[in-house]
Amino acid sequence: MEVIKVVPSGYCKGVINAINKVKQAIKDYPDKQIYILGMLVHNKYVVGGFNLHNVITLTDENKTKEQLLDEIDDGVIVFTAHGIDPKIKQKALDKGLIVVDATCCDVTKNANLCIQHLKEGYDVAYIGKKNHPESDAVLALSDKIHLITNCEDVKKSNILNEKILITNQTTMSINDIDNIIKALLDKYPLAKVVEEICNATRTRQQAVKELEGFDTLIVVGDPKSNNTTQLANIGKQAKIKNIYKIENSLELTSINLDNIDKVAVTAGASTPSYLTKQVIEYLKTKDEQYLNVDFKKILDL
Ligand code: SF4
């Protein structure tokens, strides 16, 4: 079987930065409990890798981030690559916690763009995913930021301001965003557009788009990862016949690999490089040693 690793794929600069910041905090504060408010990046193996270092990831679907923070009185609190509501960050500082902000610079740039336009009197039509931590952090800035998840939301929207900024979450699909922006411009012709899909997302999606006509694509990543989901969607739109979304190499054992001559492998920006290597090595060799996950290697960059 010919195995092609799609380039670029896997860890982006924002994820590498976030992992390095937590690794540094482990070194800097050996006597402090370190907490991460939400998943540092959307991959549960990364959470498991940090568990080995006694780093606690705070998640509870029934609690807000603020409620989770309220339960912490001491130690180090890490804010994730997706960004954080500035009011929560301030609350952590006021509580005397040591704050490590791992927000990706591209996410910060987008938040600053929104803040600047709010100051100039704009409303913001923000194209993003509902209940995603990145969109949640931006929406928390002001009720003048309106979440648009699809073209249906555009129809339902009713932004009365003449000054409107159209922008978006950094990990949206390069295929879908144009339609939503077009629908917004049809409804709000004077709106200003600043499209903000980050370079890492764009180049990973473009690389999958170029596989058009390919028979089989394997996408390695966590089901919660938006950029991983988008890679599979782009693959479908590129008419790749068989697309398998898997989290680890073990899941390959439930796929019939016998009739596959050529396979492309890509990975979300938050997928540990180690897991993608395991998948590629198993596909090449069928050696069962590549089916076992060694959590000590998960945080290798
Ligand atoms: S996907 Fe883009 S915005 Fe998100 S962490 Fe990576 S570089 Fe930053």
Describe the structure.
The protein has 301 residues and is of the alpha/beta class. The chain has 3 domains: 2-11 and 200-297, 4-hydroxy-3-methylbut-2-enyl diphosphate reductase, catalytic domain (Cobalt-precorrin-4 Transmethylase, domain 1); 13-105, Rossmann fold; 108-197, 4-hydroxy-3-methylbut-2-enyl diphosphate reductase, catalytic domain (Cobalt-precorrin-4 Transmethylase, domain 1). The chain has 11 helices and 12 strands. The chain has helices at residues 13-28, 44-51, 65-70, 86-94, 105-119, 133-139, 151-156, 177-187, 199-209, 226-237, 273-285, and strands at 2-5, 34-37, 56-58, 76-79, 98-101, 123-127, 145-148, 164-168, 192-193, 216-220, 242-246, 262-267. A 4-stranded parallel β-sheet has the order 1-12-10-11, sandwiched between helices. α10 links the parallel β10 and β11 (242-246). α9 runs parallel beside α10 (226-237). The longest helix has 16 residues, at 13-28. The relative contact order is 0.16. The model has no long low-confidence stretch (mean pLDDT 96). Iron/sulfur cluster is lined by residues 12-15, 81, 104, 106-107, 170-171, 198, 200-201, 227, 269. Iron/sulfur cluster (SF4) binds at residues 12-15, 81, 104, 106-107, 170-171, 198, 200-201, 227, 269.
